[in-house]
Amino acid sequence: DAGVIQSPRHEVTEMGQEVTLRCKPISGHDYLFWYRQTMMRGLELLIYFNNNVPIDDSGMPEDRFSAKMPNASFSTLKIQPSEPRDSAVYFCASRTGTRYNEQFFGPGTRLTVL
Amino acid sequence: GENVEQHPSTLSVQEGDSAVIKCTYSDSASNYFPWYKQELGKRPQLIIDIRSNVGEKKDQRIAVTLNKTAKHFSLHITETQPEDSAVYFCAAGRSGNTPLVFGKGTRLSVIA
């Protein structure tokens, strides 16, 4: 298994532009998580899905952020419009729903908004 | 909800010495406590975990201890090596369908 796959690995954009981050979870995993990592705030959980259904999006900072999971093998995190304070590393992670399961992180997308 | 506090935020040790990182949690229902290591520019990766029915677990130079009464758990690294330098995150969660809550991380530097 290739593990959790994220694209792009790096994204540089200008303020006001739309940004779409992509994630492919590990096959068979029914939980998918989106995190944002910054020096100041550490690892923040933005939203998570179970069986493609959003369960908790209370970590999504603003209406500019949205996430979808149209099927079991694909999820997107969209920021529109982007702002410089959105600059961070965004990680996707997945795991199975049974007890005590290891959560696997993707390689992350480093987003820079100028 | 769950809240996880992690200390210290930075830790420097001499190569060969031991390092200890401590975490406390607030939700007495939490029963799963993993530790992740994140090297510079890389993803967090699980290095060891402990479940609430166990007080201690060891894996070579790494050990975790759990005190459920006091709601704290610790990571111990013995005979530290330069490659142990990284950011370490503790986390707490319940089994099944709730997300892990992570501490803020500890930046460990092992000085050769």
Characterization of this structure:
- With 114 residues, chain A is mainly β.
- Helix content of chain A is 0%, strand content 54%.
- Chain A has no helices and eleven strands.
- In chain A, strands 2, 4, 5, 6, 9, 10 and 11 form a seven-stranded mixed sheet that branches.
- Chain B is mainly beta and 112 residues long.
- Helices cover 0% and strands 54% of the residues of chain B.
- Chain B contains no helices and eleven strands.
- Chain B has strands spanning 4-7, 10-14, 19-25, 32-38, 45-51, 56-59, 62-67, 72-77, 86-92, 101-102, 106-111.
- In chain B, strands 2, 4, 5, 9, 10 and 11 form a six-stranded mixed sheet that branches. In chain B, strands 1-3-8-7-6 form a five-stranded antiparallel sheet, with no helix packed on it.
- The termini of chain B are far apart.
- The A-B interface holds A 31, 33, 42-43, 45, 48, 50, 55-56, 91, 97-100, 102-103, 105-108 and B 32, 34, 36, 42-46, 49, 51, 89, 95-97, 99-105.
Secondary-structure content class of chain B? mainly beta
Residue share in β-strands of chain A? over 45%
> What level of helicity do the residues of chain A show?
under 10%
Point out poorly predicted stretches of chain B.
none
Can you give the mean pLDDT of chain A? Answer: 94
Instruction: Indicate the multimeric state.
Output: heterodimer
Give the number of helices of chain B.
Answer: 0
End-to-end C-alpha gap of chain B: 41 Å
CA radius of gyration of chain B is: 13 Å
How confident is the prediction overall: mean pLDDT of chain B?
Answer: 94
Count of DSSP H/I helices of chain A? 0
Number of strands of chain A: 11
The description of the largest β-sheet of chain B is:
6 strands, mixed
